Amino acid sequence: MSPEPFDAVDVIRAKRDGGAVPEDALRWMVDAYTRGYVSDAQMSAFTMAVLLNGMERDEIRVMTDAMIASGERMSFASLDKPTADKHSTGGVGDKITLPLAPLVAAFGIAVPQLSGRGLGHTGGTLDKLESIPGWRAALSNEEMLAQLADVGAVICAAGTGLAPADKKLYALRDVTGTVEAIPLIASSIMSKKIAEGTDSLVLDVKFGTGAFMKDPARARELAETMVALGTDSGVKTTALLTDMNTPLGLAIGNANEVRESVEVLAGGGPADVVELTVALAREMLALAGQPDADVEAALADGRAMDTWRRMIRAQDGDPDAPLPVARETHTVTASRSGVVTRMDAYDFGIAAWRLGAGRARAEDAVVHAAGIDLLVKPGDAVAEGQALFTLSADDGARFDRALDALDGAYEIGDTAPETAPLVRERITA
Ligand code: URA
What we know:
Layout: H1 8-16, H2 23-35, H3 40-53, H4 57-69, E1 84-88, H5 97-105, E2 111-115, H6 125-129, H7 141-150, E3 153-157, H8 164-174, H9 182-196, E4 200-207, H10 216-232, E5 236-243, E6 251-253, H11 255-265, H12 271-287, H13 295-300, H14 303-314, E7 328-333, E8 338-343, H15 345-357, E9 371-374, E10 381-382, E11 387-393, H16 399-405, E12 410-413, E13 423-427
Parallel strand pairs: 1-4, 2-3, 4-5
Antiparallel strand pairs: 5-13, 6-9, 7-11, 8-10, 8-12, 9-11
Bound molecules: uracil.
Uracil binds near residues 170, 179, 184, 185 and 189.
């Protein structure tokens, strides 16, 4: 066996003392950890040093590259159309991928959305789509390419072959308090996106109570880091910085979020969901060479809906089948008249999770019909006794814990809250 060229302790010390790790040592560290030579204990010390001391732009590029090199790289070069992808850093009620992928594909762009399942208070796109009877998340690479060529849009599970180093590292960060390091989040997300092989990528980087990054300045730093990484790797990348202090839309859950997405595809739906879907579609289409595409027209005239139906059918789902409905509901009403001033995204996300819409462990099943339907949003005037939101669950015993999470999560005041734009900033290379 050839001796290892570096010593993990030297790499850890370099980062601990605030220095930059040389390229070959950093590549080795990622590779040796993936092989099991560098231990979890050593990698945890290293990731904590990164969290505390940061990384230079070049180190983040090398880290990302090393994670890409740990697995397969996909290619969409055989398709005769440009590819555009979108990634959201995750939020509450964030169902945007569902209307967005078919909408952009309706313009002849291939949209490969390799998605995940929810963990904790943020939902997962695959969980939402699995509410549709028959729909299948697992596709082979060949099936995915065939669907991209034919329908144009695919939303499916990311295979285990993309950036396996990230999978191992993410699980370690999750249990060592090192998820929040911007260099690690950026390299984790971008290694998977670059390995996937898309031509262009639009990032929806969220800030606020329901987001990973509570603070807009940190979200901006994350967005800038990811845009630089994508651009340096030849992927046309832009980011929108969007507000996640309030749940997106009116539905939080799985089946109800599919229902709301279908409303958007039918030309209706809540204004904020439409606004963000349209904003992200415009960005994706601009990167794919169609800056003047009339996105709203494709929602209004049914082109996006046609693509949605073909996309769902191609993965064995029945777009006309009734979606699951919960056995029990509980409606919360206003204790006074006034104006709704706040609905906290994080608390509503936790409540929906407690109702069964999310999972605590990766192996748990979600209850597709569970969730929350908002009947009002901040800024709406309400009368005492008026219904504010409805909780849905298969087991009424879950309501108490969900209501605990909602204690203090919303407010009714005398004056309307100040409105802030949903899309706060656009970040380009
Ligand atoms: N999502 C990822 O894929 N990785 C992170 O580090 C954080 C969010």
